[in-house]
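This entry is retained here.
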Amino acid sequence: MIKTIPPLNLKSLIRRFAREKRGAAIVEFALVTPILLGVLAAVDDLSAVTMKEKAMRSSVSSAAQYVMRGGSDLGVARSIVLASWRPETQDATVSAVKQCYCASIAATCSTVCADSSIPLAYVRVSIVQPYDGWYTDTSIIAQQEVRVR
């Protein structure tokens, strides 16, 4: 004897599906899991950037303290940054630059300003490191500027 399949009644099929409770938890889990994983990845990304930036700022601060205590060798300031922080990529750049200004206009440090004053001298120590994360590809920057004259 051959059984025939009754025709599909869409209305009764939807009602039967709505009454069925088995497997509801797994469906809810399947719907929520991608959202939770996305939030987890975002938190991981943000915490990694924050930790790296904190380490970079600490090493820049060490070099700035050297300059504030009278250190004038920019190579030593750069070495202090590299001694207290290890770059994770070869693309990271560390710089220590002296800049002079006459009334907020860039000037050479060895000349006198137009108003016969000595130009203000600043040393800027900075680190730039590229970061490739889950959601963002950016550069993390830490810098500090110290007035030396």
Remarks:
- The CA atoms of residues 46 and 133 lie 9 Å apart.
